[in-house]
Amino acid sequence: MRYENKFTINSFFKEELIYFIKNHPFGFYKHYKNRNIQNIYLDTLNFDFFLQNINGDSERKKVRIRWYGDFYNASNPKLEIKYKAGMTGDKKYFDLGNFTISPLSINKNIANIFQNSNIPHDKKSEYSSLIPTCINSYKRKYYISKNNKFRLTLDYDIRYYYPKSGLNINKEFFLSENSVVMELKYDVKDILLTNSFSNFFPMIITRNSKYVNAIKRLLG
User: Fold this and answer.
1) For 67, left (φ over 0), alpha (ψ -120 to 50), or beta?
2) Is 163 helix (H, G, I), strand (E, B) or coil?
3) SS3 195
4) How far separated are the first and last CA of the chain, in Å rounded?
């Protein structure tokens, strides 16, 4: 288990934020090349996972299909099940077969995607019953602290799409998010070292969930 703290900053301050990351006392430096991240979020018919976040449940779950690179061609995608207990979190991963985002609804493709996977048989029916509720796409920068205890990511150019909108899946129909999301990840044992982390940033920082933001904007 590890801590994952997410913060939202207005995209107007993106370059300023990058400056403060690079000059932070933790000594952050570039850890990995920039990547384009694509997600299909899955939920129950009653949006149970969304409501867990809205209601502030101590135990929460998110289920998504994630891949990197081209939006329309999912190469080496994975099913991610993300568990949160309070502020700590953990993940499970299952490999999926490659697939393409067709101009038709993604809803018709989910069952086939799960068939070409290494998901255990007893779990396959459980996850296959979920429905796609949101597609999002964004760019990510990666940083790591000098002592290798803290990893930091910066997500920007965030866009959302509702798969059941009746529109073709086309980037022209994505809603854009006027913010960047910064996430700090670290082991539970290092929590005392993070007390002054956000104090170094002069801009206003607020908590964030991209999935919750997407559903609110798309269905609100």
Assistant:
1) beta
2) coil
3) coil
4) 33
Which residues, 6 or more positions from 175, have their beta carbon under 8 angstroms from its beta carbon?
159, 160, 161, 217, 218
Q: How many domains does the chain have?
A: 1
* Whole-number percent of the chain with pLDDT over 90: 40
Predicted confidence (pLDDT) at residue 106 exceeds the cutoff of 70: no
Amino acid letter at 114?
F
pLDDT reported for residue 34: 97
Residue 170 tokens, joined: 């086309």
Range of the domain at 39: 2-219
- Write out the two tokens for 210: 């991209």
Domain CATH for 7 = 3.20.100.30
Whole-angstrom distance, CA of residue 13 vs CA of residue 10: 6
| Main-chain dihedrals φ then ψ at residue 114, nearest 5 degrees | -70, -30
Place of tokens 């459980």: 126
Sign of CA dihedral 143, 145, 151, 155: negative
